[in-house]
Amino acid sequence: MTQILQKRPSSISIRAGSIAKQLIEKEGFYANQVDIIPGAAGGPKGIGLTGIDQAIFGEFLPQAKQRRFLIGSSVGAWRFAGIVAQGEKIGPEKLAELYINLPFQKGMKIAEIEKISREMLSGIITDQTHKLVDHPDYHLTIIAAKAQHLFQSDQKLALYGSLLGIIGGNAISRDHLNKFMQRVICQPADFPQFKIQEDAFKTHYVNFNQDNVADWLMASGSIPGVTPAVKNIADAPQGAYRDGGLIDYHIDLPFQSKGIVLYPHFTDSITPGWFDKMFKSRKANPENQARTLLISPSQDYLKSLPLGRLPDRKDFVLKGLDEKQRIQLWKQSVAESQRMGDEFLELVEKQSFAQVIQTL
């Protein structure tokens, strides 16, 4: 009797903007087409992409060496910093290991969380900060938010009052966030600079160096009420800097790519700002994402994970989940992510993207 083998459901979802879809259907998808890679904010969800990051940076992009922009906010910037500092294979593994073993506990003070976070960041970049400044292949671009008025303060009354104002203003229009914060795009000085068209937010362009890049990475991931704003950054304008995801959560920016924007992401849609999560109508601008190829975990893959989803910051304090269990479940999620990397590389080898692409 012939046994019929059932094919395992796909682990990845492939979506593309209008121009990217046309290019891939006409020319296929190759490493030399990729000039920009975004990385979203999203906390430990980022380590759920370990396998796909290793496949993209360790095996796919080296097929066509060229200088590329890596544009990240919060954990997206930390992912890329690890890759640039430690290498395409070790960087993602190191980030996952350090995140998995963070000793976060309910009730910790923000000073304690800041100390632990800085130690984690130090473990990611070690003594390789020079690579973040002058890497021959990757132009690391860090997005942060410069707080305005009362939002600069970490005092509870001022901070939470500002957050209430932000939430209320954002409910009316995303543009109202500009009363509370401004965008900061921070990058090395010695290469062509990443710039965007003017929008509702005042954008500051700042160059980082070996002495201050760690502070900029901390600022990019400084969640209000969880860690304090980063102040007194060397060689930078005075101010209080916070999580880049507050404005640019999934980085819906006009990238001005000349090829394809390859976006390894933890979800199959793009939400502009962190405060837009509660509004299903707040989606990416199709013009911004016209050249984007979005690679994300499929719904079948997510359901197959131990938690039925990617790791999440709430797991540190989730009722019924102790630290030992969390660590084990997160390790399993990271290990499973190799499936996504393998499937991506198989699609590259067979050049079968056109058969599976959906519209972004």
TrEMBL record:
Domain of life: Bacteria
InterPro entries (UniProt xref): Acyl_Trfase/lysoPLipase (IPR016035)
Protein name: Patatin-like phospholipase family protein
Organism of derivation: Acinetobacter rongchengensis
